[in-house]
Write a sequence for this structure.
């Protein structure tokens, strides 16, 4: 191990997870506070009133965020113009009929319209002052806190995926297009094009697993149209998510409870049309809570909520304020999945948590205490995750952590559309690290920073089969002058799920 090199490089503080990285404050555009928004008629369906719903809508006393009633009547939608990019149509495979009540997109691609957003839309609640205190985690509205993919896309689609021998899905975090929506729209357009006319047999992505920070800066439902429903209006697959810190933040100036916007769009008791969609087809998701396990063919994804910590403070999944329930859930789920494996039913295990256990970001800290709790739960259950996905830091990083003989990729993917990508810490020579960069974590495990990229937006494409996990970071370069965004492979690797060895091209 390059101990001497590690001691001479500032990045080593990200590799030793008992030490926090120093914090460089996040950069935000200077704007006067915007608490109301008005959309132009071109920016939403013609039948929709320009008035937002009453302010009382945001009050927890007026609307429960645990369960949602039956879907309201959808608003009518005006015809949209010819698409600019990508110029394709997304036909739905015959065996891809969603489960009853769900809708994901309209059948035809439509042109991006963020050019019609007002400044109030774009800058949202930039100047609101959030509370920095940790907050209790809401209990799941349904137990056990598990979601099966067939509940969302239907049994026939799941059967077709199983028959195909693998499942493909998208993932990324930190997508909210505040300040400069063009980055988010470019990524979502590229994700939509990546689905194209693929079938389950040709690795059609089955869903998008969002790694948190759906809406900036306080997760207000008021901004779900601009930062969620409109950007993903053409994405023809379900979006399942864990909340990020910005999704859970609160402020004395904003009348909402923690995670209210998130739960009213992702944790409803049945799929319904949220008025914030303003006529777009996508229905709400039926996740049982803000932490849960998604069961899909070939893979179980366990999503955790790491609370509202920002900057130099760590993510938190359990403690005096946030409560012990989530950690107990983690232990129970790990134990159940370990038992399933012993019985011969092995699926890949992916752990998703917004705050990254490891990062070299200039703007965000790693979360060593959280990782220690996860490690302890894994040890008690006798199982290790095959892959760990995080966001929060606004860049891409790929670490390989070796525990015993198992190589476990830890991915930071916070480049989904938030406008201000993070820098990475430099060494004593004032240069970024040369990869692969090798060190050890606080437990003495070998830890290698395989690659980082902090100038490119994009998304992840993962394909999982019985014995392998194939991973690609698809970079997206926004187009100019109405041209389509271009894509490229920025990083890729394959993980053998039997030997637990990572192979890189």
């Amino acid at each position: 191990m390059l101990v001497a090199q590690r001691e001479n490089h500032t990045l080593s503080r990200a590799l030793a997870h008992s030490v926090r990285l120093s914090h460089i404050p996040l950069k935000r555009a200077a704007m006067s506070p915007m608490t109301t928004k008005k959309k132009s008629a071109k920016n939403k369906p013609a039948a929709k009133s320009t008035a937002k719903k009453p302010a009382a809508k945001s009050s927890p006393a007026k609307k429960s965020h645990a369960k949602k009633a039956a879907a309201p009547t959808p608003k009518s939608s005006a015809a949209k113009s010819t698409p600019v990019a990508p110029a394709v149509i997304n036909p739905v495979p015959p065996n891809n009929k969603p489960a009853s009540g769900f809708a994901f997109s309209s059948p035809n691609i439509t042109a991006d319209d963020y050019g019609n957003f007002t400044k109030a839309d774009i800058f949202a609640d930039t100047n609101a002052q959030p509370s920095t205190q940790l907050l209790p985690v809401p209990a799941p509205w349904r137990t056990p806190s598990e979601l099966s993919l067939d509940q969302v896309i239907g049994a026939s689609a799941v059967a077709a995926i199983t028959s195909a021998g693998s499942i493909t899905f998208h993932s990324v975090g930190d997508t909210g297009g505040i300040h400069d929506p063009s980055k988010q729209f470019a990524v979502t357009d590229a994700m939509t094009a990546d689905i194209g006319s693929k079938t389950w047999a040709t690795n059609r992505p089955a869903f998008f697993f969002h790694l948190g920070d759906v809406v900036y800066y306080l997760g207000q439902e008021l901004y779900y149209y601009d930062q969620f429903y409109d950007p993903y209006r053409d994405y023809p697959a379900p979006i399942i998510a864990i909340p990020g810190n910005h999704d859970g933040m609160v402020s004395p100036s904003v009348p909402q409870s923690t995670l209210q916007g998130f739960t009213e769009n992702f944790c409803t008791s049945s799929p319904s049309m949220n008025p914030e969609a303003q006529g777009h087809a996508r229905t709400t998701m039926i996740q049982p809570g803000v932490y849960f396990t998604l069961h899909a063919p070939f893979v179980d994804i366990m999503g955790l909520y790491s609370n509202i910590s920002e900057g130099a403070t760590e993510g938190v999944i359990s403690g005096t304020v946030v409560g012990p329930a989530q950690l107990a859930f983690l232990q129970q789920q790990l134990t159940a999945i370990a038992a399933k494996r012993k019985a011969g039913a092995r699926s890949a295990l992916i752990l998703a948590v917004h705050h990254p256990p490891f990062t070299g970001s200039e703007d965000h800290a790693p979360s060593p205490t959280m990782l220690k709790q996860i490690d302890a739960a894994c040890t008690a259950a006798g199982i290790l995750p095959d892959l760990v996905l995080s966001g929060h830091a606004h860049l891409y990083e790929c670490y390989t952590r070796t525990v015993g003989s198992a190589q476990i990729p830890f991915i930071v993917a916070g480049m989904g559309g938030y406008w201000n990508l993070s820098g990475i810490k430099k060494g004593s020579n004032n240069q970024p690290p040369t990869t692969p960069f090798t060190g050890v974590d606080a437990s003495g495990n070998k830890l290698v920073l395989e690659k980082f990229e902090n100038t490119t937006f994009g998304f992840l494409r993962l394909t999982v089969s019985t014995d392998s996990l194939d991973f690609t970071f698809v970079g997206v370069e926004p187009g100019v002058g109405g041209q389509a965004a271009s894509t490229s492979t920025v990083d890729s690797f394959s993980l053998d799920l039997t030997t637990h060895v990572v192979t890189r091209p």
